[in-house]
Amino acid sequence: MHPLFDLSARVALVTGASSGIGRAIATGLASAGAAVVLAARDRDRLAQAEREIADRSGRSATVAVDLLVEGAVEELAQAAAAAFGAPGILVNAAGVNLRQPVDQITRESWSRTLDLNLGVPFFLARSLVPAMRAGGWGRIINIASLQSRRAFPNGLPYGASKGGVTQLTRAMAEAWSCDGINCNAIGPGFFPTPLTAPVFDDPQLAAQAAAQTASGRNGRLEDLHGVAIFLAAPASDYITGQTIFVDGGFTAK
Q1: Is domain 3-243 in CATH 3.40.50.300, yes or no?
Q2: Catalytic residue chosen out of the listed positions 53, 94, 147, 158
Q3: Residue 141 has what pLDDT?
Q4: Does residue 158 have an active-site annotation?
């Protein structure tokens, strides 16, 4: 493996790792040698992800956690360090999109969306930063969205939270990059995940999404491996505060 992309000496924590984008990124990081701590609520799916990584000779451990429970973020930071040592890589992939019409949004649904998509990434990162700072190195990777740039129907809280993620990423970079901690975000296009099931369950909607890209197709989860490894590896040493869209050119049109 080229040293610019070698993660064999690194520990990564990936939230939302039981399925979808989080699981794909965790698998990609493990393939580059990282020991990966998989965090999510669903124990069975976490076990499946752990077996998938083991089948490919990777190293992983799991932590079942609901990140919206008070104190869970701090507990996760401690549990993650117990597996392989303090994580130097954090991927904030846990998220929710309730897809409510504007008139049906409640304060509870608004708070849940903003807390999980925007608040948890900050507070979890802050919990891990001291160990990263002590080691003089760290990588924080947030998950943005097409809705970081564009408004979609029935997605007002989600879009607000994902617009916030791009600014959170810049602010994190300003705060922590001087300590050797790079902070960037990945902005996925349409990928088949539990959150996008309403699109991919409808062939017409899936085709419409593909037609809006420059590449003429929707994403495959393995398309995320390369960018995740790049942002976690030495190859991206001088890149921080950026959002990289992996969308087949959706935002280019």
Answers
A1: no
A2: 158
A3: 99
A4: yes
